[in-house]
Amino acid sequence: MGLAFHVENFGCRAARADGEAVSARLRTAGNDVAQPANADVVIVNTCSVTAEADREARAYIRRAHRINPGARIVVTGCYAQRAPEELAGLPGVAAVVGNSHKALAPEIVVRMAGVVDQRVSESNGPAFVDVRSFIAGTASGAAPGGVPIWADDRFAHSFLEEAQLVPGTQTRPNLKIQEGCGNRCTFCVIPQTRGNSRSLPAESVLKQVRGFAAAGGNELVLSGINLGRWGRDLAGADRMSLAGLVRRIFDETNLARLRLSSIEPMDWDSDLIALMGDFGGTRLARHAHLPLQSGSDAVLRRMHRRYRPWHYSEKVRLLTEAAGPRLTLGADVMVGFPGESDCEFEETCAFIRELPFGYLHLFPFSARPGTRAWELHKEVPVTAEVVEERMAALRALASEKVRVHRMRFPGRVVEAITLNSAETIRSRSCTAALTENFLPLEIEGELESNVMVRVRVARIASDSCLRGVVES
Q1: What is the pLDDT of residues 393-410, one digit of tens each?
Q2: How do the domains of the chain map onto residue ranges?
Q3: What one-character DSSP code corresponds to residue 103?
Q4: Coil, helix or strand for 128?
Q5: First vs last C-alpha separation in the chain
Q6: pTM score, whole prediction
Q7: CATH topology of domain 4-150
Q8: In this structure, which topology does domain 413-470 adopt according to CATH?
Q9: Which of 61-70, 169-178, 182-191 is the most confident on average?
């Protein structure tokens, strides 16, 4: 009889892809998805990009233990890699699996259901054990009453290749094709928590895409921790660029639509931009997310980012020329990096005003232990009050950017894919959808999920969501 499990995901698309892969592996092995209150094992797939992400993970672990004291809680992801002992000390945690061993997480979970029986107290110390001995059926490597931890800095087992993706709960699943990051931005812990860049071979990617399309899937999202670096670590005949891989997908599969997740500005090379001109609006989504972080040259230099504001502007210009005005451009913007002056913040605001952003992801700087910015924060911190003032100013600017971009579409016909609609939407006899260029859409009438439709946009609702009807 299989176990009942629940996977709770935190963080980015790539992290979610990891969690979806763990869930798929467990389902394939005959185990059942359950709500946390009814699960034998709760798997918490953490993020650690900010202190708030850490706090949310700890709060969820405590809540899961409170509502289901008998469940074994397995913690994995970036927080588990960065601070495994910290997590091992939380009540209810039965094992900690860092990103270095996440590929083994499904088997660890299954074995643990019959091996690890002791409850964990806050006074128990963690023990680093040999995963092979544990999977063989013994926990002899763990200290008595301790919590087994699998985490090291070699990342030998870290690429978690998904089971075959099919359209289901996730109409538009993420296919993670790249892991880790070789950049050394002063604020980021990703190199510590995920290691250097590694790529899924092209044939493995193509096999996934073919299988997804054969199962009736229409839209697939390619994701990665540093997606634009895909292929650069491969050798021989396997070595190619991300643009080359995308062209092979279009040449060798019948996938209806491909979407690219976040790509660093300098990785949008001429070949990748050309794809927007060749396939944008048909098989390639006209959607580009370029992390910005700051529009100030001085701040970008302190961050050790690999581009300057004028580089970023030029990439946006070329992308807009290739994809046309329907391109939806998104960015991440960090507020309150150590030493950020009023003048430098205003440079960021002015830079954002000049570019055609369709949305912004805003977040305050969070000092991460072990990074250069951790020390900078001690030397020249930006106060919490100033950060909140600047966040408020950028929220207002971001809202205006969203409004201006979406006002282009009432009266126009857009391509979209239907999603699994929430009950609140179904109760209005409507269907949730996402446009090809990444705009939320609500369609009149009840449609199945995973259907490609043409929709005439009638209006923009107060929540900024487009509303429309299927074009006959």
Answers
A1: 999 999 999 999 999 999
A2: 4-150, 174-406, 413-470
A3: G
A4: strand
A5: 49
A6: 0.87
A7: Rossmann fold (3.40.50)
A8: OB fold (Dihydrolipoamide Acetyltransferase, E2P) (2.40.50)
A9: 61-70
